[in-house]
Design a protein that fits this description.
It is a single chain. This protein has helices at about 10-20, 25-35, 50-60, 120-125, 130-150, 170-180, 200-205, 225-230, 240-250, 275-285, 310-320, 355-360, 365-375, and strands at about 5, 60, 65-75, 80-85, 90-100, 100-105, 110, 125-130, 155-160, 195, 215-220, 260-265, 290-295, 325. With about 375 residues, it is of the alpha/beta class. A ten-stranded mixed β-sheet has the order 3-4-5-6-9-10-11-12-13-14. Strands 1-2 form a two-stranded parallel ribbon. The chain binds S-adenosyl-L-homocysteine. S-adenosyl-L-homocysteine binds next to strand 10 and strand 12.
Amino acid sequence: MRRQNVLGLSRDDLESYFETRGEKRFRATQLMLWLYHKLVVDFNSMTNIAAGLRQIMLDELAIELPEVLTVLESQDGTVKWLMKTQSGDTIETVLIPDGRRQTLCISSQVGCVLDCTFCATGKQGFNGNLSTGEIVGQVLQASLWMKEHRPSERLSNVVFMGMGEPLLNFDATFKAIDVLKDDLGFGLSRRRVTVSTAGVVPGIERMCGLTTVALAVSLHAPNDEIRSELVPLNRRYPIESLIDACRAYLTSQDVKATITFEYTLIENVNDTPSLALELAKLLKDFRCKVNLIPFNPFPGSTYRRPDDSRIYAFHKILMDNGIRAMRRTTRGADIDAACGQLVGRVSDRTRRAARYEDGMNSVYTPAQKIRASTVLN
Ligand code: SAH
């Protein structure tokens, strides 16, 4: 019998697991505290669980973490992990420190089916959904690394802005979110978990009443003509239906909730003053903020990043028209960790990696160290 990955089980699942074995439900509490608070990933070290029960757990359950192949650290403190999934594919996870905030950007799928024209992830195709355990596993791996390398820092936010479209992997995503938000899990409050979508309208509709996480929508254009060009999914779910779904989500939340619209600025494609005005009109009276992301180039793409004066001008028009907008600074560009650059490939991840050869330490098994140095050499 294949052992079940505990990282894929919510508190409810674990409680019923122990109950059906004639054990008290609080065993689930003990197990989760070991895993997610003490970051102990070995059943034998869970000393307040009786040896007999530990043996049953060893027989039936496993703590399956995605295997870390490489860890790269940017000059600005951003960290990127390349991790191997159960299926043998590789995914990327990024930690973005910003003042007191430590935001982890996680992947929900291997590749992506949506093929947005400006995103590198789409260019590599799609190899499947991640399981709940693989989503939670990225957060646990990152936490283990932080405990070792940045012990004074704690993860404060998780955003589903890595590879993939979380709303096309709905069940696994929201079960993982249960663990992220659970006090016995990572204990992140609802506003500290953000699901970002390219505009999967039925997914947003399904979120209404089911969850209270923060919603980010990748808008990128104020009209269907340009948006359908950039985000092909827009042909199926045009802007009007997307805005309606966003309104429905806001209605389902408390009055303080807002939606973030992400807008990747691409020179001469969607960055003109008239489009800024059109965007301001579209979002007028909507409880939202706009995140302006300068386009991050990747090999093979013909788009360009606008120069700063164009970005400032776009930003100013939005603000002058009453729209809350922020310019997002590019982080981790030297390790290809910025938005839209996550591709999970291995071959050219060598530039800044050498220092990790020695840095791979006790949280990694010898096999992982060997694999990492193989990749790095
Ligand atoms: N599929 C989800 C989450 C992943 S993308 C979504 O589309 O929202 C996370 C953000 O990075 C999105 O807003 C995406 O549009 C943006 N992005 C993708 N490629 C980019 C690039 N090359 N430069 C800047 N931002 C990019």
